[in-house]
Amino acid sequence: MSLDAESNSDLVLQPLSASPPRAAATISGSDDDAALMLRYRHGDTRAFETLYERHKGALYRYLRRTCRDEQVAGDLFQDVWAKVIAARDRYEVRAQFTTFLFRIAHHAAIDYFRRAEHQYVDRTVDPERVEAGLSDHPSARPDAKLLAQQMSVTFKQALDALPVEQRAVFLLYEESGLSLEEVGRITGVPMETAKSRLRYAVNKLRQALQRFRSPVLDGSTT
Amino acid sequence: MSSSDQQAWERYLAREGEVADAYRRLEAESVSPDLDAAVLAKARDAVQPRKSWLRWGGPVALAASVLLAVTLVIESGPGGSLIPATVPQVTMMEAPVVADRATSTAATVETRSEPPVDQSMQSRALETVPAATPAQDAAALQRRPAPSPPRTQSAAPVAQERRARAEEPARRPLQRVVPLQSEPSAAMVAPPAVQADANVQQEEALRSSPERWLDYIRELRVQGATAAADAQWRAFRERYPQFAVDAADAARPQSH
Question: How many CB pairs under 8 A join A and B?
Answer without folding.
Answer: 122
